[in-house]
Amino acid sequence: MKYENLKSFKKHLSSAAPHNLCRMYLVAIGDDFERTKALDAILSYFVMPPTRLSGAGSDLKDIFDAMQSLSLLGDDPIVVLDEAEKLSKKQIQSLCDQLTSPSSYILFGSRSKVAPLFTLVEKEGVILDLLGEKPWDKEKRLIDQLSDRAKNAGKRITSEGASLLLERLGVDPALLESEIDKLICYVGDRNVITREDILSISPASKTATLWQTAEDVIWERGEFPPLDGTSFHGLIPALRNQLQLGLTLSTLIEERCPSDQWSKYLPKLWPKTLEKRSSQAARMGSSYFKKGLSKLLEVELLSRTNSTQYRALLDLFKAQIYVR
Predict the structure, then answer these.
(1) Shortest CA distance to 39 belongs to which of 6, 85, 74?
(2) CATH top-level class of 2-129
């Protein structure tokens, strides 16, 4: 059995524990921090401590000895073999030949796909495979994990706030977890983590953040920096946020809504920023922001179907919204 979704995999573990856990698990995640956490999530359902080995420094004798070493209480051994991709092809094949019906529990970790091992574990056990996870799916998962971690601490972070964290820090899971923990402490007795909290204490890890890029492109007709797939899919929600802000402001102005009533329609903005953006929104008009939202959706859909030419897609987006 294979799972390509972390939540589904965890549901499997909770429903199978403690008596129906599989003898073999394989966690295929490129990020070491996330792979270790997933392996530890499996181990949390076992009472006995495991023997931990690495494919980088273990030979087959070490692995087989660990699999055959009963605990003092006579329980079946639990072996964690991480970095399985570092075993030689010959070692992997020999290991697979011996694992058709293991009497121990063995948990594999891998940064890449190891064909014979994947085939065996998918047939005899359970695989968590996030190697092919799409950038936008990973970002959504990380946002959900940030929200869950805040919730477990009695706090709430908005999806906009979680997206801002990703825009400022990237998609490094270890860094994001550390940062949300820092924010939980920073807000003290307050139960909501706001955008202002993030801007106050969370540094931007890139020289030009995705958030700043989105502001520059939408409001100042700035240029896009070089982008990879991860940055592209992080920039899309930032662009959408600026377009939605502009549409709200321009609509309020066009409908002659008194400025003292704007606060219930807008996120918190610094007074100088609000003054600048409202002036720009009045000049640009709501049609500019409506067109931007429509064209952004088209570009996003193209990126998820048949195009990975991210810079070309963004240039197309700019060309379409800047033409009157």
Answers:
(1) 6
(2) alpha beta
Q: Is the pTM higher than 0.85?
A: no
Distance separating alpha carbons of residues 301 and 297, to the nearest angstrom: 6
- Report whether CATH 1.20.120.680 matches the domain 210-322: no
What is the bridge-based pairing of β-strands 105-110 and 24-28? Answer: parallel
What are phi and psi for residue 80, nearest 5 degrees? -110, 120
How many Å is the Cα radius of gyration of the chain?
25
Predicted pLDDT at 35: 93
Report the pLDDT averaged over residues 287-296. 94
CA angle 52, 54, 59 (to 5 degrees): 105
Per-residue burial over 31-67, b = 16 or more CB atoms within 10 Å of its CB, e = otherwise:
beebbbbbbebbbeebeeebbbbebeebeeeebeebb
Spatial separation of the C-alpha atoms in residues 160 and 124, rounded to whole Å: 42
Kindly report, residue by residue over 141-157, the tens digit of the pLDDT.
999 999 999 999 999 99
What is the distance, to the nearest Å, from the Cα of residue 213 to the centroid of all Cα atoms in its chain?
Answer: 21
- Domain-wise residue ranges, the chain: 2-129, 135-201, 210-322
**How many CB atoms sit inside 10 A of residue 319's CB?**
10
Burial profile 72-105: b = 16 or more Cβ within 10 angstroms, e = fewer: eeeeebbbbbbbbbbbeeebbeebbeebeebebb
The CATH number of the domain covering residues in 135-201: 1.10.8.60
pLDDT digits (tens, 9 = 90+) for 238-255: 899 899 999 999 999 999
Would you tell me how many other CB atoms lie within 10 Å of the CB of residue 201? 13
